[in-house]
Design brief:
six-stranded antiparallel β-sheet; 156 residues; two-stranded parallel ribbon; alpha+beta
């Protein structure tokens, strides 16, 4: 599939005007076994349903699956392919309010994020704090892979 276009906002105030709206959809990301293995190495989570391909084929999901936290860790990738805010000198992850992993993500499947702006509040230092609802779509699945409420800060 072709890449989605990045939604560009002139500044933080232009973004703030979109509170309550779905603002962007990211590009698709394909989950590979190499990613899953590297995530297992980085986190120490070597559960067989992620890294033992043969055993996982006979397991409850019929294939190895991505770690839930690997899916969650793709949020910056999704945002990078979907949203750009002009005039921002720095952005930081401020945390999460709520996360749910609703569907397993088999290796080889594709994910993309639908991004809705829930809130945008002025903060000290000339910035704004955004609260986002990020719904991670699992291609072909009835339910999302993950729904997360992500909080970030951006400084002009």
């Amino acid at each position: 599939m072709p890449a989605m276009s990045i939604r560009t906002f002139e500044n933080l105030e232009a973004l703030a005007a979109c509170v309550g709206q779905s603002v962007a959809t990211s590009d698709w990301v394909t989950i590979t076994q190499a990613q899953v293995n590297q995530f297992a190495e980085a986190t120490g989570d070597h559960q067989w349903i992620h890294i033992d391909v043969e055993r996982a084929k006979a397991g409850p999901f019929g294939a190895p699956i991505a770690h839930g936290f690997l899916t969650l860790s793709l949020l910056p990738t999704f945002f990078e392919s979907a949203i750009r805010i002009e005039g921002v000198r720095m952005g930081v992850n401020y945390g999460l309010n709520r996360v749910r992993f609703m569907s397993p993500v088999p290796v080889g499947s594709r994910l993309r994020a639908h991004i809705k702006l829930l809130a945008s509040d002025a903060i000290d230092g000339g910035g704004r704090q955004q609260t986002w609802e990020v719904t991670v779509e699992l291609e072909g699945a009835a339910k999302p892979a993950c729904v997360a409420e992500s909080v970030s800060r951006a400084y002009a």
